[in-house]
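User: structure tokens for Winged helix-turn-helix domain-containing protein, please.
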Amino acid sequence: MALLESDVPIRKVVTTDPEKAKALENDVRAKILDMLAEAEMTIEGIHAELQRRGEDKAETTVRHHVNVLKDAEMVEISRLEEAGGGTRKYYKSNTRVFSYDLPEDSEESLAPAQETATEELESLVETLYAEHGDEIEAVAREMQPCEYCEPQHYEEFVLRELLNRALIDLSETGVLDDVFSGGD
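Assistant: Done. Predicted tokens:
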């Protein structure tokens, strides 16, 4: 006889590749990503800003963290400048990490919005599969590591990536800013 039996629904989905997950293991790297999402900075600038934020790290350690983020393709060199016989590198994040959690009481107040989102996304997903199902399935098959793995998980991942990239496009083109500011 079971002491506890409970249906545990999926409540959150985290999608990232292992290299990016490893890069985010360190909270200093998360702070660097946050800083570089706002402005391009040199290693020296990142070092100074980390110190201002209470992180007393050596400049070589900061350089190591930036290199880990660069290797994970989360940070890029945005600009090179000649400086005193050398080259100064400026870095910028190409990745936005949301490490938030909704307030405990938000589920009830967001329920109507969730219902609207679910209905609208159902229609969008049906349209995407009707118009691009072959491409989605082809990419999912390429990702599937073995014939026994469930293909729908890979298709769902591809779909989530498409939706995430569409949101990024809306953010980068200013559409989300316009929506959030009331279209001013």
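User: Anything notable?

Assistant: The CA atoms of residues 33 and 123 lie 35 Å apart.
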